[in-house]
Please model this.
Amino acid sequence: MSALARICESSQRMQLRRRQILALSILLTGSFGVAGSARAQAADTIRIAAQKTGTLAWELAIIRAHGLDRQADLNIETTELASTEAGQIALEGGSADLILSDWLWVARERGLGDDLVFSPYSSTLGAVMVPDGSPIKDIGDLKGKRLGVAGGPLDKSWLLLQALAQQSGVDLKRQAAISYAAPPLLSAMLLQGKTDATLTFWNFCAGLEARGMRRAITMADVMKRLGAAGPVPMIGYVFHGRWAERHRALLDRFFSLTEKAKKILAGSPAEWQRLAARIGVTDNAALDIYRRRYAEGIPNRPLADEVADAQALYRVLAHIGGSELVGPAQALAPGTFYSADPGE
Model:
């Protein structure tokens, strides 16, 4: 078989695998429209692929409950998926207009010729969680300890934590016992004393806080120590730039109603009762921890500041993660961040 034939066959297998993953994700979690079919014909429509257990799905539930979509004359067609990768496939395959992902993936795709853009969604990130009585207070205290890590070897929080540790002369991969696992398993291991600390995602941190664990090292602090001037939204809305040019007014309306949903969730503990079943938490004190951590991550800085900090952190991630993480580009691709003002 020629080299060209092998490349074509590999490409076909990749496309088939992506279609299979997307189809399976939709089959497992289902899809639904925020509005009825009659209204869908009258209102502008935006198609969103959202992770079933993610915060965007929480916000969409609040939007529906308060009728914010009807007020904006916007029909939100939502497909709930099982993974971030499935959302990326849905966007690239044209079955979704908008998803949540991180600017690192957007920059990588732009470096490969795509026109994806990123708009900040949340700066809420995870932390290194430890038992309340643990002596671990900073990175140096992790030497010789059993550390659980969510997201795998190329998880962005893990790479940033390693980068900061290296500045202090600590090689966490060599000087700590690392266990990679899914967040629920890591939470159980920490609670059972099978690990001394765990680096996990923010919502699992909130769950652990409700069980008496504390945040020893926050990723917000790690990023500031690596050069960021403020909280950096790693997660954002992602969509194609050409689509945004054609639907700028629709995007403006969508962002406006999601801002309203964020204010409702940030300011009203009672609203979290609507989400209790989705989150899997019914205790009011635990729900309030989720609410406070969620509210802390609502972006409120000028876009230029967000871009500058992302550029600084990209260089750190490119250095420690290499091309396997960022692709060929050693700097954040120009145009990665979407501007609502066409003149910027």
Remarks:
- The chain has two domains: 3-97+247-299, 127-225.
